[in-house]
Specification:
Helix content: 40-55%
Distance between the termini: 56 Å
Number of domains: 3
Radius of gyration: 23 Å
Oligomer: single chain
Strand order of the largest sheet: 5-4-6-3-7-8-9
Strand content: 5-15%
Shape: globular
Order of helices and strands: HEEHHHEHEHEHEHEHEHEHHHH
Number of helices: 14
Bound molecules: guanosine-5'-diphosphate
Structural class: alpha/beta
Largest sheet: 7 strands, parallel
Number of strands: 9
CATH architecture of the largest domain: 3-Layer(aba) Sandwich
């Protein structure tokens, strides 16, 4: 069964409005025989606060839209949802392709919903995602149980764009989901590059999924990614793989000892589990909740969220300045010329950059 917000109908930014609509019909859900009208910011907010999944899905589409009109409405919706957000636990889940993220998130999600109640939203950050090919993070078809769970909302990564842009949209979607009553947020990201940093900057707990079996598990992992992890979990600890996974776990534990103590005061834990066979899932989530209790008690939870809010303020400024510069029609033309001069060796990169920036600042006056 398809989750409602997955259907094309729900993805549009309009709903059928009530010209002939009986008063007892939910304007967000009744479709088919009424003419379309665009939702106002207040319509979105009202629907979101009611926990209406279809309106939430449309609001996320609005956030992801590049259309400036949509963006203006989206910002208003986000601002109005902000006071209703924040009351969730946000968990980043990262791992290289094939680590078992989708399989695990499916199991993890069902487990936390059954064990801890509430509602779960699964979002993703994947700046490289192209919807037409390859595996897509947050892909519902790869999360069979969760995708039909009435308490879940799954949304794939915003389509390809700059990492900053994609990550900002995911962060804004978190706000909308929380306002809609989702008190558990998973942010899936692929464990190969900078998207971890972006993911880490919006979650309370960063879970790194690893695999055993290569004999030199630690070599391929960037130190920075390991340092970000609040928990490392070795997946596929089943069948013939159990010994290898336990060996890998002890290697990770040893390696973590060499890192400086995290600011949170928490000692990152290393566990083994099997997403496919549902083994060790409970222990993974007991660890996450133990961490949340720990950092809520010592004040780090609040501190990390404040630091993240600050980080995102600067990120937004950077992104908007960059966009304003690169999208200015005059600058666009000048960039081509500047690039040519640099390539032909007629101007140094520095002089070309200065020339372009001076021109940009002059255009602002
Ligand atoms: P992703 O690319 O990180 O999302 O990984 P997937 O969830 O798509 O899993 C990649 C492959 O590993 C699939 O063939 C899964 O069936 C398999 N897999 C995932 N979890 C486990 C596990 O716990 N044990 C075993 N043996 N295989 C698994």
């Amino acid at each position: 069964m398809e989750h409602p917000e997955n259907s094309e109908e729900y993805k549009g930014l309009t709903v059928n409005s009530g010209v002939e609509q009986p008063s007892n019909v939910n304007p967000y859900l009744k479709r088919g025989c009424f003419k379309h009208r665009t939702l106002t910011a207040n319509d979105y907010v009202e629907g979101i606060l009611k926990g209406d999944v279809s309106v939430l899905g449309q609001a996320v589409t609005l956030v992801e839209s590049l259309n400036p009109t949509h963006q203006t409405v989206a910002q208003e919706v986000i601002e109005k949802c902000l006071p209703h957000s924040g009351k969730s636990i946000r968990v980043g889940i990262s791992g290289v392709p094939g680590a078992g993220k989708s399989t695990s998130i499916d199991e993890f999600g069902v487990h936390v919903l059954e064990e801890y109640g509430g509602k779960l939203a699964v979002l993703a950050i994947d700046p490289s995602s192209e919807r037409s090919k390859g595996s897509i993070l947050g892909d519902k078809t790869r999360m069979e149980k969760l995708s039909v769970h009435p308490k879940s909302f799954i949304r794939p990564s915003p389509s390809a764009g700059s990492l900053g842009g994609v990550a900002r949209k995911t962060r804004e979607s978190i706000i909308l989901c929380e306002a809609a009553g989702y008190d558990k947020i998973f942010v899936e990201t692929v464990g190969v590059g900078q998207s971890e940093t972006a993911c880490h900057s919006m979650v309370d707990f960063f879970l790194l999924i690893q695999l055993a079996g290569t004999g030199d598990e630690l070599q391929g992992i960037k130190r920075g990614i390991m340092e970000m992890a609040d928990g490392i979990v070795i997946n596929k600890c089943d069948g013939n793989n159990v010994d290898k996974c336990q060996l890998a776990a002890s290697q990770f534990r040893n390696a973590l000892h060499l890192f400086p103590a995290p600011e949170s005061g928490w000692t990152p834990e290393v566990l083994t589990y099997s997403g496919f066979y549902g083994l060790g899932i409970k222990e993974v989530w007991e660890m996450v909740y133990r961490y949340i209790d720990f950092v809520k008690t010592n004040g780090y939870f609040e501190h990390r969220r404040n630091e993240q809010a600050k980080y995102w303020m600067y990120e937004s400024i950077n992104e908007q300045l960059r966009n304003s510069f690169y999208q200015h029609p005059t600058i666009k033309t000048m960039l081509e010329a500047g690039e040519r001069l640099v390539l032909e060796g007629k101007q140094t990169s520095f002089v070309a950059a200065k020339h372009l920036l001076d021109a940009y600042f002059a255009l602002l006056h």
